[in-house]
Amino acid sequence: MSDEFELDTDDLKRRMDGAMANLRTEFASLRTGRASASMLEPVMVDAYGAMTPINQVGTVNVPEPRMVTINVWDKGLVGKVEKAIRESGLGINPQLNGTIIMLPIPELNEERRRELTKVAGQYAEHARVSIRNVRRDGMDQIKKAKTDGMSEDDQKFWEAEVQELTDKMIKHVDEALETKQAEIMQV
């Protein structure tokens, strides 16, 4: 029976990659002083009786490094989109031009940059915790196989595999965090 144990490292890697993908998405929503369509992803608009993402009520474009425009398809929703952006806490003051809403992105001050680096750190810590939870699941599978008769050498081999994968993914998280923090602090 002990020779039959094969840990699904691909599954563990896939789950750890999912944590990294989630981290990248969270990092993309952090405002760095540069315009990005992804910064509007968390903003929802009350359209047609349902909360709807902005990209489903208009076209979001980034014509300049410090400007985001939203071309709202339905004239009746322009006011609701503007209100949703004002109330979103993004710190952006929308300007109306017919059905086009322009969002000039202001420069970040030093205090706001420091706050954003802390938020980025929190996002990275959540990713690390997710990766460690996947490692724990893998180690639990190995322990169960050990009680089912796996040899100690096999146990050590699989634990080393899981730990190596975990260390590599944590290193990726740390590198992504360093890059994002440098991007945020760049004036």
From TrEMBL:
The keyword Metal-binding is assigned to this record: no
One of the entry's Gene Ontology molecular-function terms is: ribosomal large subunit binding
UniProt GO BP: cytoplasmic translational termination
**Protein location:** Cytoplasm
Any one GO cellular component localisation term in the record: cytosol
Write the record's keywords in alphabetical order, separated by commas.
Answer: Cytoplasm, Protein biosynthesis
Per UniProt, what is one Pfam family of this protein? Answer: RRF
| Domain Ribosome recycling factor: from-to ranges | 23-185
Q: Which HAMAP family does this UniProt record tie to the protein? A: RRF
What this protein is reported to do is described as: Responsible for the release of ribosomes from messenger RNA at the termination of protein biosynthesis. May increase the efficiency of translation by recycling ribosomes from one round of translation to another.
Family as reported in the entry's similarity comment: Belongs to the RRF family.
Protein name as it appears in the record: Ribosome-recycling factor
Q: What gene is behind this protein?
A: frr
